[in-house]
Amino acid sequence: MTRRLISSGSSFEAEIGYSRAVVDGEWVFVSGTTGFDYATMTIADDLAAQTEQCLRNIGAALEQAGASFADVVRVTYVLPRGEDFPQCWPALRAVFGEVRPAAMMISAGLADPRMKIEIEVTARKRSA
Q1: Stated pTM of the model
Q2: Which range of residues forms the domain containing residue 7?
């Protein structure tokens, strides 16, 4: 079984010591991903915009791993303000509406006060 590390180029990965994703055989584990645009290391102030950027970041990691959102089996959402979660639903439904992975939402503080959401996913690549 092979293990492969995927990086997004985020400065956080090098500073903290983690990978955006780890591929282990048919499994893909995508780290908690925030709404930063990793190319510019900027982040929108709007929760909906951060959610969409999280999903773009996760989609890029899944693609590098040879997977897609259709392969996601588990997702965890973390928001500092749980009552804001409904603002994320349109973007989440657009990506996961047909996939319907097992999911959990946690309300907790995030590492940077600008962060309004963090999303972690686990995917299992389908056999061809």
Answers
A1: 0.92
A2: 3-124
